[in-house]
Amino acid sequence: MKSRLKSSAPPPPPIALLSPPWPLYTRPSIQLGALKAIIRSRFPRVAVQAHHAYLTIAAAIGYARYHGISERTWLAETVYGALLHPEQQPGMARLFRREAAGNRLLHRTDFAQLVSQVQAATEAWLAAVDWRPFRMVGVSSVLCQLTAGLYFIRRLRELHPDLTIVAGGAAFNHQSAAAALELFPEIDAVVCGEGELPLCHLVQHHIVEGRPITAIPPARGIVRRGGDDAREAARGFYQLENLDHLPLPDFDDYFAALSGLDPSRRFFPTLPVEVSRGCWWQRESTTGESGGCEFCNLNLQWKGYRSKSAGRVVSEIDQMTRRHRLLAVAVMDNVLPKESTAEILRGLAGLNRDLSIFAEIRATTPLAELKLMRTAGMRRVQIGIEALSTRLLRKLRKGTTAIQNLEIMKHCEALGIASLSNLILHFPASDEDDVAETLHAMQFAGPFRPPKPVNFWLGLGSPAWRHAEAHGLDHVGNHPHWARIFPPRIFRRMPFMIQAYQAGAGRQRRLWQPVRDQLRTWTKAYGDLHRGRPDEPILAFRDGGDFMIIREHRPGGDTLTHRIEGSSRRIYLFCSHHRSLQRVLANFSNLPEDKITSFLRMMTAQKLMFSENDHFLSLAVPVRMPD
Ligand code: SF4
Fold first, then answer.
1. Is the confidence at residue 286, as pLDDT, over 60?
2. Which terminus of the chain has fewer CB atoms gathered within 10 Å of its CB, N or C?
3. Which residue puts its alpha carbon closest to atom 2 of ligand 1?
4. Which of 275, 293, 336 gets mutated to test ligand 1 (max ligand atoms within 8 A of its CB)?
5. Residues 336, 339, 345, 351: is their CA dihedral positive or negative?
6. What mean pLDDT is predicted for residues 73-86?
7. Model-level pTM greater than 0.70?
8. How far apart are alpha carbons 135 and 451 in whole angstroms?
9. Which atom of ligand 1 is nearest to the CA of 292?
10. Which whole number is the average pLDDT over 184-211?
11. How confident is the model at residue 502 (pLDDT cuts 50, 70, 90)?
């Protein structure tokens, strides 16, 4: 799509893009960066300003406080919720206090004072921007940004009634767009799904051609009040076919805002990078039913999986880090591409920079790829662990097993890659056997970095939400916390991203309490055992060629050592990757079967190996990782 105005015509009015609190303040918004870049490349005469309002608000209320709030949905949503609906503030204050209870920095926060401070900072920010030249503003709302986005929208409408206001981002989707327009009259249009092509459509017809928003041709992905837009938008996604066609994201406005802060408030940000959109694990089955993890609703805003080519990704990271003089990079993808990740990592290693990269990966990532990650500069990964029970992983449709999870946790420990992961508690279909399996696996996982407990929540549009009946979930609807934030007329009609159900929540809490307790013990022991020796694995072996010595630091200060000789050493090394008993026997066919099985049983009893369904995994980490 190209601008149809001749260059001698006066330039079209500028547009603004806005990201409200509460994204991570240490990163520019990938959404704003990508949208600004495509508008600038396709409409060179249309000026675009990307406003990272969250950075200013973070600096105003203090970074530590902002960060604490941004980490929890209900903390974030109540702050601007109280500005939207002050009559409901007492209920929100109670919710805030409850959610902040475990947070050292926030548990004493005076909610009313915080709300006033955020309001003053927001008003000051709004007043500092000259909105008069702008014809249209696009407000991006993803996780934790719903009430903040709505508050900015309301204030912009009050201050500048002629501004066209478009809402987009994951908080608005095909299911909620029509209701959002009806319930929030300040919004002129909602973009559902990926924003680039719908925004270009709006810029062409509304900004360049100057047509009123109600008179532009309908397009997939854009819903306006009245008309057939909701039906048009519901027909599908209006999205790019090839992500290599995207220009480099434009983060200049974020860096300009950062350099405008008091020097004591400036920092070195992390650069967000998009390698792909969607999730290949969520592919459709032959029957048309979409796949993916049962709890996941991360990919409502696009269809299918697309990734940039390896060469493009490497060149983008190369250019962006050089341009902004930074080395910390966060890959924003839900999952890295299966085919090209190795090539990307080799390319990044070839840049010869001391990059520090974060990415989310699946537990099936092979060791060879993890080694490449380490070489490329991946220091932290979020692994989709989710459970340590294979029964439960099956119910979650994660496509992994507990032994695979332990294996990748071990490899990360060996490579010095910090593995951040979650353990989902209270999944409605989980039972005593799942909990027992989890507790059993946890006894073996002690040497590895513990996951964080996360209570299951029902996501709008997730497979669990769609299969609610099969999971025995009754009365599925908006989470009751939304009723504390929004008045009944909105609560009843707007489908929110966080849903709730009635199905034995109390039973699930009781069922999972022992796991929560054991996780606490594990986390404490892991921290204690690493105190003073952060890089030394808790359970490690040194190889002597025809024998090996396994050293095990134990809680309480003891250190145990074990020596393994000859064929036992070879079996232990063979099981560095999980192996079936059948493969072990086949590989060591010269040894008597009972000798092998009794060795495996003994090592498992001593928690030096983990076994599951006749598969075995050695747990000690090599002090020297072979190439
Ligand atoms: S949780 Fe991750 S792997 Fe699972 S469907 Fe969602 S994005 Fe894909």
1. no
2. C
3. 334
4. 293
5. negative
6. 98
7. yes
8. 47
9. 5
10. 96
11. confident
